[in-house]
Amino acid sequence: MLPFILKRLGLALLVALTVSFISFSLLFLSGDPAAALAGETASGEDVEAIRRLYGFDRPMLVQYGEWLFSAVQGDFGESYYFKLPVASLIAERLQVTMLLGVCGILFALLTAVPLGVAAAIRPNSLIDRVALFLSVAGQAMPSFWFGLILIVVFAIQLGWLPPSGAATWRHFIMPTIVLGYYAMPAIMRLTRAGMLDVLNSDFIRTARAKGAGEGRVLFKHALRNAIIPVVSLAAVQMGFMLGGSIVVESVFALHGAGFLAWESIARNDLPTVQALILVFSMFYIVFTFLADVLNAWLDPRMRSS
Amino acid sequence: MTDSTDPLYQEIQGPSPRQMLKLRAFGHKGLLFGMGVVGLLVLIAILAPVLAPHDPYAQSLMNRMVPPVFMGGTWEHPLGTDHLGRDYLSRLIYGARVSLLIGAVAALISGVIGTAMGVAAGYFGGKVDAVVTFLINVRLAMPVVLVALAVVAILGGSLTVVVCVLGLLLWDRFAVVMRASTLQVSRRDYVAAAQVIGASTPRILLTEIMPNIFNNLIVVITLEMAHAILLEAALSFLGLGVQPPTPSWGLMVSEGKNMMLFEPWLVLIPGAVLFVLVLAINLMGDGLRDVTAPEGRS
């Protein structure tokens, strides 16, 4: 187990390092970050002054090394726009995004797992078809449009929920649904396939033969085995969801890290953008690492590959 | 030798694999629906100048936000007009061009990159495989929407930039699927036979491997095309994709958002069309997978 964890940890670190390099080099995609920062009306001297002030006149690799060195210590520099340390800015906004992410994945699991189990118990039944329809439709639904429709129906027409903001728990209901439905189809399909697989296996037949109740067979024997891959898929989806929160947060004007990303991209606030790309990537890397370790712990066959 | 029209021959032979494929395809409702809708929208996109009742760019401040026919409007503007008085149906028709073009070209670019990487990893294995797998991991760790937005913001929003950014970002699924398919195919005897008779590596890849993983490639192309179309709409919705006045469905939803309170159809119509197109492409992809690989059907 330990060699597997160490090997997997090394890979995660290498991926993180590469991602950090890519997100840093984004700064240089525009050719001259100083000119972009100074704006179109700036004179040549102004651009030169900014270049020296921010150290853009040094070799790129030196700048990357310096940025990485402080980033590892939690210092991402100062935001060009907010004039605040990027790290504290992100930490503050991340609370909303994390809360949204946790609610979203819980919503996805609580709807997708029961649906997947129900669909697997009776394949080709009405409920199986409804589940299949929901998962196909869910994958095709543009999330920003789904969010706007919810606002029109539940906030404007019915007046049940507030359309935007993050003041109370009621503000989180619609964003949770929009973010959560995105992860639902994959989780449901995997639950259904896993349950179908397990329900046909020998130990389920044995459990039934020895007279175990159907509820006990389904939940104690079958689901416990079928749920293992679902847990790691949920961890991966959670990583994707945090990255996808940018669309949902801008639709519902939730001031989380995704909204911050959108603001800072629109305002050319590169230190914040770089840091956010790195932070969102790190979440994905950590979640997939935990998922792999969990899998290896539950299933020793995974440790060799 | 035997006359193929001979009834006895037919009885023994049965339908050929190609005929079987046709039979399965015509019996698959999802595939038929998907192909029908996608075909129709492609036709509409090609014939846009003939079909559109008005110029999609022509503004008319006298006719702003005319409601659609079914909400009390006139047939002059069947789906009404937007906040600048532009005919909504015409913009919707031209918008199909933007979505389909971006989807197809982005899927093509990412398809070439991902297939090259996946086939190389699957066929050569070893170090090549390790490098490709690592690159896939790196790519998956990068938040797509965020990176795409940032790059479009730096380079400036245009159709070309959006297509290239999406093409360079969406190759991961191609690489994963093509790697797995190639791994499977390259263990077959006919590949070993080709190696033994001294066929060159490019020849084996092109004539032995590629034709046998082509079905999987088509499926991934359709699914990634849908993915690219959704992402373009999201980027345009956030204001960092295709720029106005180009008629993009995502942009239309974003422009209608401010009038959503009083004119919800401005948001509903373009979003619904986008939903139907993506749904149809996905159904087509799922259908193609079912039809070409019946053993994988559940």
Question: What is the element layout, followed by pairings?
Answer:
The complex is a heterodimer of chains A (305) and B (298).
Chain A: H1 2-25, H2 33-38, H3 44-54, H4 60-72, H5 86-121, H6 126-140, H7 143-157, H8 173-199, H9 202-209, H10 214-251, H11 257-266, H12 270-298
Helix pairs in contact in A: 1-4, 1-12, 5-6, 5-8, 5-10, 6-8, 7-8, 8-10, 9-10, 10-11, 10-12, 11-12
Chain B: H1 7-13, H2 17-26, H3 29-46, H4 48-51, H5 88-124, H6 126-141, H7 144-155, H8 159-169, H9 172-185, H10 189-196, H11 201-237, H12 249-257, H13 265-292
Helix pairs in contact in B: 3-5, 3-13, 5-6, 5-8, 5-9, 5-11, 7-8, 9-11, 10-11, 11-12, 11-13, 12-13
Describe this structure in words.
The complex is a heterodimer of chains A (305) and B (298). Chain A is an all-alpha fold and 305 residues long. Chain A folds into 2 domains: 2-72, no CATH class; 87-304, Orthogonal Bundle (MetI-like fold). Helices cover 76% and strands 0% of the residues of chain A. Chain A is built from 12 helices and no strands. Chain B contains 13 helices and no strands. With 298 residues, chain B is mainly α. The longest helix of chain B is centred in the middle third of the chain and has 37 residues, at 88-124. The radius of gyration of chain B is 24 Å and the shape is flat. The relative contact order of chain B is 0.14. Chain B is 71% helix and 0% strand. Chain B has helices at residues 7-13, 17-26, 29-46, 48-51, 88-124, 126-141, 144-155, 159-169, 172-185, 189-196, 201-237, 249-257, 265-292. In chain B, helix 3 packs across helix 5 (88-124) and helix 3 crosses helix 13. The model of chain B has no long low-confidence stretch (mean pLDDT 85). Chain B has a single domain, classed as MetI-like (MetI-like fold, Orthogonal Bundle), CATH 1.10.3720. Chain A binds chain B through residues 11, 14-16, 18-19, 22-23, 26, 29-30, 36, 136-137, 139-145, 148-149, 151-152, 156, 193, 196, 242-244, 246-247, 250, 261-262, 265-266, 268, 273, 276-277, 280-281, 284-285, 288, and chain B through 134, 137-138, 140-147, 149-151, 153-155, 226, 230, 233-234, 237-240, 250, 253, 257, 260-261, 264, 267-268, 271, 274-275, 278-279, 282-283, 286, 298.
